Amino acid sequence: MNIIDELKWRGAVNQTTDEEGLRKLTDKKQIGLYCGVDPTGDSLHIGHLIPFMMLKRFQLQGHHPVIVIGGGTGAIGDPSGKNSERVLQTMDQVKHNENALSAQMIKLFGTENFTIVNNYDWLSKLTLLDFLRDYGKLFNINTMLNKEVVSSRLEVGISFTEFTYQILQSIDFLHLYRHEDVQLQIGGADQWGNITSGIDLIHKVEGSDTDVFALTIPLMLKADGTKFGKTAGGAVWLDPKKTSPYEFYQFWINQDDRDVVKYLKYFTFLDEAEIDELAEKVQTHPEKREAQRRLAEEVTKFVHGEQAVVEAQHITKALFSGEVQELTAEEIEQGFKNMPSVEVSAEKKNIILWLVDDTKIEASRRQAREDVKNGAIRINGEKIQDVEAEIDPSAHFDGKFVIVRRGKKKYFLARIK
């Protein structure tokens, strides 16, 4: 299947400048294509995976993806999708973010048949006069004002700095066409105006018959109409320190039945036959959540590796069964990150006093005795029914944690000081 036809089957194409021309080009040769990311933070999130999955599919078919880290444009601020001016970062912040993002992308794309460049390398060399004479002269203000990325901001206002962003992004496309043999730029639906400005610039400078193309991705919405990737806890990050692999796995496994097939098409490399089979299972046995489990496995493996999937599944199984004694200290750190926690000393103590005075897990000694006698309290996976029992915080998990389970599902984590 041609890469364009595959992308269409996966629901990954929103707009193209010349779909048939792009299909013919990709049939004829391996092309260079690019997507940009500005270093506004030190980690990618799952929203970035949307265009990156496209680049990865091209890479797997032998095409050459290029990622542009916006060291230059990131210092300016992209107005796309924003209703107010971005806060400008210091150059030190930008540099730190560049290094962090580059490491994450190498993890996703490897180093073979993949290039990372930084637009600071060429944009920083432009003098103001060069910018105005060589590029500013080629951009019509009326056309720029009509681009949705600018027109949407006219009521609230837009600075000249952000107004010129589309010119800088256009220069990127021209530079990559000349130096990296890039003929296709990919971006989100809100990038259409910026990308087509780049095509216009290339046609003016290199000739109107130059083969360059734009392809944008649909805005990804969940079945309930909300934007994909937003959770009550905020963004889902690719950095395991910000979003643990277990949390990442849980995000995908908890997807709605109405969305899971769409996400299998978009975020995995499973073929049509396997996805159709999983789609059938969503209809016939939704309670088994096989499609969600497969989705979580595939995306977690792509972002964090096979071992992360094993650990996430191990944590999930232990929390469901209550057999938490099987977990390692590192797995506890992941699995209990967002659960109620308290700091306690390493001193041994009577279970009732520990539950009430040290951890405040129980509200009173009477309630603590009742719960212990009734078998409602488990310490590190073991049911404790003796009110005279002693808690030894150093006995398990490298002396770092004590896990308390009250009732069937309520977990608490005591961290040892």
From TrEMBL:
Q: Where can the motif 'KMSKS' region be found?
A: 227-231
The residue stretches assigned to a coiled coil in this entry are none
- Give all residue intervals belonging to the Tyrosine--tRNA ligase SYY-like C-terminal domain: 331-413
- Tell me, what is one Gene Ontology molecular-function annotation carried by this entry? tyrosine-tRNA ligase activity
Keyword Iron on this protein?
no
Instruction: Please give the family membership noted in the entry.
Output: Belongs to the class-I aminoacyl-tRNA synthetase family. TyrS type 1 subfamily.
Q: What is this protein called?
A: Tyrosine--tRNA ligase
Organism equals Pediococcus damnosus
Instruction: Provide the gene name from the record.
Output: tyrS
